[in-house]
Amino acid sequence: MTTQLDVEKLSKQIQQQFPDAVQDAQGDYILLKSDYLADVARYCHDTPALALHFLSSVTGVDYIDYFELVYHLVSFEHNHSIVLKTRAYGREDPHVPSLTGIWQGATLQEREVYDLMGIRFTGHPYLKRIFLWDTFQGHPHRKDFTGA
Amino acid sequence: MVKTNGDAKLTLKTEEVMVNIGPQHPSTHGVFRMRVTFDGEVVTELEPIFGYLHRGSEKLAEERTYTQVITLTDRLDYLASMSNNLAYVLAAEKLAGIQPPERAMYIRVIMAELMRIASHCMGLGFFINDLGALATPLMYMFREREKILDLFELVCGARITFSYMRIGGVSGDLPEEFMPALVKFINEMPGYIDEYEALLRENEILISRTKDIAILTAEKAINASVTGPMLRASGVPWDLRKSDPYEVYDRFDFDIPVGSTGDTYDRFLVRLEEMRESVLIVKQAMEQIPSGPFRALAPALIHPPVGEAYAHVEAPKGELGFYLVSDNSIAPYRCKIRAPSFINLTVLRDLIIGWKLADLVVIFGSFDINMGEVDR
Amino acid sequence: MDWFYELWPKLGEAFRGWLESALPDSIEGWVIYLVLGLLSMLVIVNLPIVGVMAMIYMERRLLGRFQNRLGPNRVGPFGILQPVADAIKIMTKEDIVPNGVDRIVFNIAPIVMLTPILLMFAVIPYGGDTFLTNLNVGILFIVAITAVDTIAIFMAGWSSNNKYALFGAMRAVAQLVSYEIPLLIAILGVVVITGTMNLNEIVAHQSSLPLILFQPLGFVIFFVAISAELNRSPFDLLEADSEIIAGFHTEYSGMKFGMFQLAEFAALMGYSAVIATLYLSGWEGPGLPGYLWLFVKVFFIFGIFVWTRATLPRLRIDQVMALAWKFLLPLSFLNVAITAVEVVVWENGLPEWLIPVNIVIGAGLVAIMHRGLNFQGQTRQVVPSGPERLAAINRPVGGGTE
Questions:
Q1: Is A130's Cβ below 8 Å from some Cβ in C?
Q2: How far apart are CA C48 and CA B296, in angstroms?
Q3: For residue A146, what pLDDT is reported?
Q4: Using CA atoms, how far apart are residues B198 and C22, in angstroms rounded to an integer?
Q5: B211 touches chain C (CB under 8 A)
Q6: pLDDT digits (tens, 9 = 90+) for C119-146
Q7: Element (H, E) at C209
Q8: Residue at B2 is within a domain
């Protein structure tokens, strides 16, 4: 059975490394400030006790006020998982750091989020539309999308 | 002849050719497109191009009630609709806090495992077809798939888009003819798998075309979020049925077949072995299945509390996950599908570059993708 | 009964007699021979065309059986009219010439493909005295004339202005030229034993025992090489449907495509007849007349071709080339050398006890050579890669929205 990592404990651990990275930690997820996302992700990936080598999925959710990015991380070695979240503000140019440097598995998924949700991933090596054609206007998974 | 600067080697001047493989190509398994650059027969660059079957399933789900979304999931991986149903209803049940009865869980496991056999039949059949064996193995595998579809037709009346599972159970109980038919099929199936093995496993051409071709190392597979038979062929014994058991999988005794090198041949063998294990699981489920209700008492129109839930199953193609966000309305606020076929394609370019045109279709065939799921 | 056994010579004889009596005396004798010659040619040209229809039907039905399905069974009893329906369909289809093709080459390629195949049937003996011409270099003529097909395939692939067709054409040149060599050297074994290239005499030489018994290794080499020449599975790389759509004839439609199909099946039929003639004592056989025996053998060999097609996956191009140059070529040289020694030692015909010896030698050589043949030697080629290359072949990488 894949166990949920203790959110409180992990967020304390992260706080020690990156003092104000954690914005909120409750339920089964840790909400990070987007500036620290890449660093914390790198920490989760490299720390042997965590060993979160597997990025299961990247999801974008549009909450009108902000976009929430949800990362499901799993460790095969310890069989535990954690959910990292971060927020991107603004509807014109929301952006978060890309995690492609840590997990190759993020490349296509981040392109998908960029295409359908319109969130820019800074540092992504090849960020372009994936399902829709290049000249498409708008991002259909946004809540205010009314059709092209 | 031109002289290359540096060493005095004489080389022929060659030009690279760019070819569009797909979206209308016999072996792209649907409408997948690859923009490939060839130097002679060797692939030097490849870019996958998606979206020819994009229907916006995730967006459509936001406009439908929780129960209506089940029909959308049928159309994701249309060769494994039952597994899609299962993944979605698990997520919805988690979100709404509904516990399905035991019998329903057993029925779902039987359906999911039969679906896995049918899906692997197609995956292997088309893989061998890509190798150029005309359609002979494919036709034999169609024969078994037909039998499974007949079983599905018995329980739900449909053969491709089942929509059999419901939030809190299944849409109807097993008809009384079902169990005898299932017993007959489960007794026959190992013989058929033996037949495939006898015909294919030691085939010299198949081995020479697949062994040591496109090796995917375990580290790379994990790093690139590869799941399913592809991951296990690389030697990682990660199967959600064992490592994160859902439904009643922890009550069954089965093995996880893993490959040793992670080449194309291992991906072929892992799928073959998984069919055997699925037969074992169905056999055990048949013996253990209790009587009782097939569906929990849940309203047709559920209003899950505000929150989110992620549920995943080991679908034939890999980890299929649904991430649902609820705002206490009758429709999901967000329905994200973690599609294994799509995410497995992350490694496509890295695996194919450097191999030949003939290998390209074979390596691509060994991914066993389904366009309905890739483009969603 | 004489009519049954010597149908074609007697028919010709009767027709000549009728012509002589029907035509006025003022017509000179050579005209009659000209008319007779043209008529025989007509029969010979139509033979492969009718034969191909039978073969297409047989192939589709047999494949159906191999693949656990029925095959065509709707048109006519048991579907035997299916080839007729196919022919009507293919002749009434629109003949599309795509933009950008080299029109002249594109249009003559099917003709260049079909003509040599039809010529091939001129020298095959269908019975003791049933043949169009008794050429003293018959087998050489067949191999030489069918080699022209390589050019036709390249013409078709090149002129189509289609990258898949070009891939097929390039593969064709590599593959067909390579397999010509073991093919010819395998034939040399037969020629050494019989001492002639005349197909009639080769058949006469086999009146007691078929040559396959003395040339088992040669037969295997010939069969493999001819499978590649006829681009049958597992060597059907020229038109590998899962890789390059239809290879060199991707852009052809209508009767031009039909001519490629016709040429392919006619070549299959012709070479099946050649195999029967060289190794299976041609038209000789008990009971039935020669022309029927030949066709029994042709369809038997064709059945083996269908069997391999239904069973085997396809090889890769480098494996195909390795098989020709590293396996078949040395084997064929060894075969000729062994045959030559045998013929020198036993000048007055090979003794029968050589048959098992030859089979053992052949099997042993194949086993030994097979060990040296390593298909897995091909490794991944290192190609320059990276984001720069990706960017170079693609449009500018998009950042930001739109």
A1: no
A2: 70
A3: 81
A4: 68
A5: yes
A6: 888 888 887 777 778 888 888 899 888 8
A7: none
A8: no
Calculate Rg over the CA atoms of chain C.
24
DSSP string, C154-185: HHHHHHTT-HHHHHHHHHHHHHHHHHHHHHHH
Q: Domain total for chain B?
A: 1
What letter represents residue B261's amino acid? T
pLDDT, tens only, C156-189: 888 888 888 888 888 888 888 889 899 999 998 8
CB contact under 8 Å between A126 and C390, yes or no, is yes
CATH number for the domain spanning B346: value is: 1.10.645.10
Segment B69-110, tens digit of pLDDT: 999 898 888 888 999 999 999 999 988 888 899 889 999 999
Compute the distance between CA of residue C91 and CA of residue C99 in angstroms, rounded to an integer: 22
Supply angle C-alpha C254, C258, C264, rounded to 5: 155
Of residues A53, A61, A79, nearest to B223 (C-beta): A53
CA distances from B348 to B239, B362, C66, C98, C380 (A): 22, 12, 34, 33, 15
- CB-based burial of residue C32 (10 Å sphere; 0-12 exposed, 13-18 middle, 19+ buried)? middle
- Measuring CA to CA, which residue among B246, B344, C197, B160 is closest to residue A108? B344
- pLDDT at residue C382, rounded to an integer: 63
| 3-class DSSP state of A72 | strand
Structure confidence at residue C380 (pLDDT): 65
Percent of chain B surpassing pLDDT 70 = 96
Model confidence at B1, pLDDT cuts 50, 70, 90, reads very low
Encoded amino acid at A85, one letter: K
| CA separation for the pair B33, A63 (Å, rounded) | 34
Q: Is C310–B134 a contact, with Cβ atoms under 8 angstroms apart?
A: yes
**Is A57–B343 a contact, with Cβ atoms under 8 angstroms apart?**
yes
pLDDT for B359: 86
Residue B355 forms part of a structural domain: yes
Q: Which of A5-14, A119-128, B52-61 has the lowest mean pLDDT?
A: A5-14
In which residue ranges of chain C is pLDDT below 50? 390-402
Question: What is the rounded CA–CA span in Å between residue C145 and residue C222?
Answer: 17
Output the average pLDDT for chain B. Answer: 86
The pLDDT > 90 percentage for chain A reads 1
The CA distance from C7 to the nearest CA of chain B, in Å, is: 41
Is residue B199 within 8 Å of B137, Cβ to Cβ?
A: yes
Number of H helices, E strands in chain A: 3, 8
The whole domain housing B235 covers 10-375
Distance, CA of C220 to CA of C31 (rounded, Å): 46
Residue A1 contacts B where some CB pair is shorter than 8 Å: yes
- Map residue B335 onto helix, strand or coil: strand
Q: Which residues of chain A have a CB within 8 Å of the CB of C387?
A: 125-126
pLDDT of residue C401: 35
Q: What is the phi-psi region of residue C81: left when phi exceeds 0, alpha when psi lies from -120 to 50, beta otherwise?
A: alpha
Beta-ladder partners of C261 = none
Position B117 scores a pLDDT of 92
> Tokens in use for C123?
């020298």
**H or E segment at A34?**
none
Instruction: Give the model's confidence band at B50: pLDDT under 50 very low, under 70 low, under 90 confident, else very high.
Output: confident
DSSP string over B212-263: TSS---HHHHHHTT--THHHHHTT----HHHHS--TTGGGS-------SS-S
B104 within a domain of the structure (yes/no): yes
Name A90's Cβ contacts closer than 8 Å, sequence gap at least 6: none
pTM: 0.86
Tell me the Cα Rg of chain B: 22
Residue A16: pLDDT over 80: yes
In chain C, the residue whose alpha carbon lies closest to the alpha carbon of B18 is C163
In a domain? residue B5? no
Note the pLDDT of residue C399.
Answer: 35
**Extended strands (E) in C205-309:** none
